[in-house]
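Hey team,

Filing this mostly as a record. A colleague (T.K.) asked me to run one chain through the structure pipeline before their review meeting, and I want the input and output archived in the tracker in case anyone asks later how it was produced. No errors, nothing strange. Just documentation.

Input sequence:
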Amino acid sequence: MTKVKLQDISISMKEITADDVANFVKNGDRVAFGGFTPAGTPKVSASAIAKKAEEEHVAGKPFKIHVLTGASTGDDVDGALARADAIISRVPYQSDSNIRNLINEGRVHYCDIHISHYAQQVKQKIFGEIDLAIVEAADISDSGEILFTTAIGVAPTFCRHAKKIAVELNEYHPKKIRRLHDIYETELVPHTKPIPLVTVRDRIGTETIKVDPAKIIGIVRTSIPSQVKAFSSSDKDTNRIGENIAKFLSNEIRSGRILPQFPVQSGVGNVANSVLEAMSTETSIIPYTMYSEVLQDSVIEAIKSGNILFASGAALTVTSECLSEIYDNYDFFKTRLILRPQEISNHPEIILRLGLVSINTALEVDICGSVNSTHVLGSNVMNGVGGAADFARNSQISIFACKSTAKDGKISSIVPFCSHVDQSEHSVKIIVTECGIADLRGKDPRQRAQEIINNCVHPDYKDLLSQYLSLANRGHIPFSLANVFKMYETFTSEGDMRKTNWSM
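Output structure:
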């Protein structure tokens, strides 16, 4: 029997439409969508499911599904389904305003969990049986061998454990990207084995996954790029944050606390872009490597310039222009890029062993060093915890950055106590704003509070927070029950935290 090569698409694999996929889905089903961010997410099936939901609702019939993804998706999935009111529950991370509103209104059940824990929980059926997994592929063979596109996320686990699979074969992506992926899957606990990854560059898995072709209900052909938008431009504050972080890391190298070519994990957005740009100006830092979740345009630019020697992630979340450049120069990039499942990109043991320096953003920080990354005024969710805690808890140096104020100075990003805590003071080592750096290592809570107030708080709030610290003058933690949330109360009633008056 002749072996079917991956590059040879089998004409016997059934071709279907997005409407066929939607017709397969029933009310109450659990549907898992591949990808991680808009990268690698299915492009047309979710919209067809949303259209079916709208039609069923008009006919007076119930139609909603449980949605599982790798992380955020984009308008193709979360936006379309949310606008159609087609979602019962959602896990594990989202960033779409449509679904965010439904969550905060209590109309969608949202389970926010650490990215590193997710694949195991899917295997344990914590979220129930997956009725259908929908994944995007650059190629597929008659024998069920699937080549993913620009993200892996948790798609291998979805494919293993779903009852059925639909594949969107996206011909926008060339088949030559086979070398981009390194798929290593862990066993169900407690049967997991040591993961043999000891450097950022290591390849320990396979370039594709193999599934039972009988599980595949069909192939939907597309040729659509991912909807990845360029992040907003940096400004003077984000540039200053980047400069502060770069100088701190340069000093760490000179002190011998971290070694040259150390691996970095970086979040996404204009702060992360400013950090990478500033790091390129510090000769003691470059070159370095990256072990992260999301690889964005700025990472590709740093690879081209030689500042980043090698980058490992779970998703290649770049603009179409940047992706075209990668594909056009693939011989160069294929030896400098790798994508892994998120259970490997975010694995605590690997993060700890590699000695990462993690750099993430916060919504707010309290004076003891705890971080809120997810909820506004303690209640309304923004996005989700994602993988920040995986990296913060296990990196050799965990850095959190934010601007010192928001809403034209009416909100201080540094408060007596966070309204919601995603990362406790036990995990956070460095706080950075445009005002400066607070090194919290080796300090007790009161020393941390003084360090943060002195170095990171905006001048408009220094005296206010110093007054609070003097009032909270008992106990190990500087905590005044009468005042701890007073800044939030003042903003709610007066519209400006600067008008806060402490209870004496």
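Quick notes for T.K.: The chain has a mean pLDDT of 94. The longest strand covers residues 132-140.
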